[in-house]
Amino acid sequence: MAGTWSRIQRGTRVLYLSRTTLLHRDSESLSAGEGSDFEDSLRRNGKKRAAKRPLRPTPAKLPKKRSRKVRAHGQKESEPPASDLFDAVKGAKSDMQSLVDEWLDSYKQDQNAAFLELVNFFIRSCGCKGTVTPEMFKKMSNSEIIRHLTEQFNEDSGDYPLTASGPSWKKFQGSFCEFVRTLVYQCQYSLLYDGFPMDNLISLLTGLSDSQVRAFRHTSTLAAMKLMTSLVRVALQLSLHKDNNQRQYEAERNKGPGQRAPERLESLLEKRRELQEHQEEIEGMMNALFRGVFVHRYRDVLPEIRAICIEEIGSWMQSYSTSFLTDSYLKYIGWTLHDKHRDVRLKCLKALQGLYGNQDLTARLELFTSRFKDRMVSMVMDREYDVAVEAVRLLILILKSMEGVLTDADCESIYPVVYASNRALASAAGEFLYWKLFYPECETRAVSGRERRRSPRAQRTFFYLLLSFFVESELHDHAAYLVDSLWDCAGPLLKDWESLTSLLLEKDQNLGDAQESTLVEILVSSVRQASEGHPPVGRATGRKGLTAKERKIQADDKVKLTEHLIPLLPQLLAKFSADAEKVAPLLQLLDYFDLRIYCTRRLEKHLELLLQQLQEVVVKHAEPAVLEAGAHALYLLCNPEFTFFSRVDFARSQLVDLLTDRFQQELEELLQSSSLDEDEVYSLAATLKRLSAFYNAHDLTRWELYEPCYQLLRKAVDTGEVPHQVTLPALTLVYFSILWTLSHISGSDASQSLSPQKQLLGLKGRMVAFCELCQSCLSDVDSEIQEQAFVLLSDLLLIFSPQMIVGGREFLRPLVFIPEATLQSELASFLMDHVFIQPGELSSGRSQEDHIQIEQLHQRRRLLAGFCKLLLYGVLEMDAASDVFKHYNKFYNDYGDIIKETLTRARQMDRSHCSRILLLSLKQLYTELLQEQGPQGLNELPAFIEMRDLARRFALSFGPQQLQNRDLVVMLHKEGIKFSLSELPPAGSSSQPPNLAFLELLSEFSPRLFHQDKQLLLSYLEKCLQRVSQAPGRPWGPVTTYCHSLSPGENTAEVSPQGYPPSKKKRVEGPSRRHREDVSVSQEESLEPNSIPATPTLTSTAVKSGQPLGASEKMEEGGSSELAFPQGLYLLGNPRSRSLSPQHVQTPLNPSGSGLGKQLTRLSLMEEDEDEFEIQNDSSEEWQGSGKSSSSSEHRLDLLDSTELNFEDF
């Protein structure tokens, strides 16, 4: 029997090897695309199967096939339509198992017809309208059939079923994959080992997967990979059956001679042979699919195809690890980790997560991990956030399952990500940090299946570790981002406010000052996170709201933290009352309390203690952060709806009385004495700061602080003897006094008999007097006073602008204030001196910290934003915007968004005036450069090149609406020509006019002109040049450049007057020379300013945001603009130089070139070159090099996140 078994094994092995070799040859020939023929393989395999299984259907059953056709003739056509199966799968109206069973029934009756129906189903699934007929199937080779189908492919659109949009195609891919899976499942005990359908289906899919048609390649690869996945499941089942059979056979053979059943042994042996044969056949099919499809398509040019391959090989490794979880298969995932497309990298990471998440498989991943660990760690810094998130999650699995694999250096490269601006990435990094540093020390063990409560020692250990990480790492200044990163994985630990407060209140906690400050910030951050339920500033969850369960947890946490912290907050304030860095965040805790608990739980005694500590803190400190926090905390308690309002209001009055009396006493000393010592100055300044902070949040009008503060400011302006520490808060106090008075007047009933006319006049007088003081402060020697005066002045001018009477407040008209010309001029001068300054002028040679520079930049942006608001709301003359617009290009990185928004809104308010302002900006820059450098060689200076860039950016700001901007652009050109010839050279001199180089700036606006307008402008320029003497034969360069920009061939970005883009052929064809010379005088006169329609009046400032500049640049450059094709201009136009003489303007001839060449008339689905399918992804250096060259604008660090991490892929 052993000899018989060995002979059977050798025979089956020979059959398997021959079959595998045959499939290898077919797949290789199909991959090469040369003469492969699945019909020949069908015949060869048919012969092999007939010799192997003589009981298979023979031609004697052909009458049964014909009888089926005859029976079906009365119901449908003799040949069923190829779309029946496709429509059923597309509609997904019936069960896939029933659909496959019907096809199997038809296959049993007629193999060829049923298989042909299956072939046409896959062809239709590719989006091809052609079908494979029986004649084609018999007479044509594989390559001929695919070539024939390619010719019949619908090229009207690039969509095919897998990529088509619409509700009918939404579920097609799922139904398609389900059909393939069900087909294999239903055939696993019958047709799967027949050899006829599966072998030829594999050959068909292999041939289609090698096609140059994307739809064929994509659909067939998906089908082949899903077919492979189903075969893997079948092979797994066969492997299990073999193991069971082997155990049964061994058990039966080990029985005694009297109990052993020879028939049972023989049947088990026969079953083993059958299972072995089936397994070899399945392995042969899998081998053919892997080598014929996967090996070529995992590096396809289409990322969707690469993603399919990687996703499926990951499922093979997880389900059938004994065969596929080897280094020879893992290398494909490792190589593809360097793929350029995010979806492919995502599939790689998810596949690896499934492997590393199984503890039984990690032992086989050691070599792979050692080879590709560096790449997996580096993917934490991937430019795509979702890829980086999955990379961190993969590393968490590696950390849990493979101890010691990740080194300290690997982990240290992941720790900074907890401060990333993307919350999903930061949360994943926080989970990694928790499992690496916190979980081993704070692990809780389960008792009887339930987790016991963590001990206070474990809680304290967690906070000590958290403090150590934050303080020692020195990665960030704000612990709120670290708390948010750990919130999802360590939320219960962070919400242990009892342990936090006990650590802070202990006398011998052995914490340093920095650790105490960090612990206070962690306490405040965790309370805020629990109370508000959203991350800190700079991070967004992307969720619209909380669920009902989350809102319930949030409400419970808010009550819990309030009940715990109300008794302890006075104690914390008392302990840290002398430390401003700790007191300010502690006072912010009231923001997150449920203050009604003071009443409902009868905790008024703790409220009294809190008010006492609050008064002590305010009297003790003068830091703005502490004073603002104290004023805001008292404002929260001063709610009339609370029953304790009278008590809090009395405490507030006591505090303000104390501060006011101290201020009156110190002010009297200042006004009477000529000089004060440092202590007296500090005391007065501190009192003013406290009053200013409370005046911001509380109405202190009844204490009448305006008059004494105004006297103090008047002395400061007149004599200059008041220190700036006193002047700054005094300015703010007067400002708040005016605003609170306006609030009272606006809130009163204007229809009462007692008109507030006297109050209005009094407020107007105070406001005008204060504006004069601020105007005087603009010339102060102290920069802080200058900036403070500018901010307050711009706010007051905006508040008291004509906009204040809008909305039924006509009675406030006497308060409207329009600044005089001198004040407007001083505001503009201040802007030039303090905002538009070079980075080198920020400090006097001393290096500054990054956060200081960012704060200075924010301050300058606030100043510029205030000035621009004055322009847009009509407070200042719009012509003053030229001082802002002329710095658009030079300071684009710092203020580009503000200036662009101002330009957009100004254009929407008055397009004509805005165009004149743009021209005025260029004139001012040109005049300044001319005065500094002189007219000689002006257009070669770097400053002039910057002006050209600015003019180009101005031209792009007009957008694609050429017809709408036609008159404006013509007017701009005409005024520019006048300016360029406004100053003539001395009589008899051959030098060019000093402003003539301005024409080069004007040429940047030429692509915005229509053909006919260009001809009129050329005639107008000729008319203007007749008044200027020029040496014959020496054309001026700016005139030549400008005329070249007006040539018809240069207008490559224009559209037709109707708004439709002309064809490429028309785009390069210009009007004839005769047509240009026959322009009438009346047409020239149409360029006069009188022909431009009157500009609309300003009716509203509620305007829409404009199109981003980047989008308009792309739109213009996409239209073959002059900027996009600098070399093509000489190919399309006359290469000879153009010149102008005083007597005649030489216009260029009609372009003689052949145009742009071929034009695309349809979408071709064929790839240009087969070499495009090769992707160089085997080298990490190449991929990283390409990643470094990516645009830095894709990922920007949040300014609110002061970490300043130097992450390449962020």
UniProtKB/TrEMBL annotation:
* Residue ranges with Basic and acidic residues bias: 1068-1079
- Give the compositionally biased regions (Low complexity): 1182-1192
Composition bias type Polar residues, residue spans: 1080-1104, 1136-1153
Q: Name one Pfam family in it.
A: STAG
Give residue ranges for domain SCD. Answer: 294-379
Cross-referenced InterPro entries, in alphabetical order? Answer: ARM-type_fold (IPR016024), Cohesin_Scc3/SA (IPR039662), HEAT_SCC3-SA (IPR056396), SCD (IPR020839), STAG (IPR013721)
Subcellular location(s): the record lists: Nucleus; Chromosome; Chromosome, Centromere
What keywords would UniProt list here? Answer: Cell cycle, Cell division, Chromosome, Chromosome partition, Nucleus
The UniProt regions of compositional bias labelled Acidic residues, in chain numbering, are 1166-1181
| PROSITE patterns documented for this protein | SCD (PS51425)
Q: Where is this region: Disordered?
A: 28-85, 1048-1120, 1134-1210
Q: In its keyword annotation, does this UniProt entry include Ion transport?
A: no
What's the superkingdom here? Eukaryota
| Family matches, as SUPFAM superfamilies | ARM repeat
Regions of biased composition (Basic residues) lie at: 44-55, 62-73
SUBUNIT field: Part of the cohesin complex which is composed of a heterodimer between a SMC1 protein (SMC1A or SMC1B) and SMC3, which are attached via their hinge domain, and RAD21 which link them at their heads, and one STAG protein.
Family the UniProt entry places it in: Belongs to the SCC3 family.
Q: What does this protein do?
A: Component of cohesin complex, a complex required for the cohesion of sister chromatids after DNA replication. The cohesin complex apparently forms a large proteinaceous ring within which sister chromatids can be trapped. At anaphase, the complex is cleaved and dissociates from chromatin, allowing sister chromatids to segregate.
Q: What is this protein called?
A: Cohesin subunit SA
Q: Which organism is it from?
A: Odocoileus virginianus
Q: Which gene encodes it?
A: STAG3
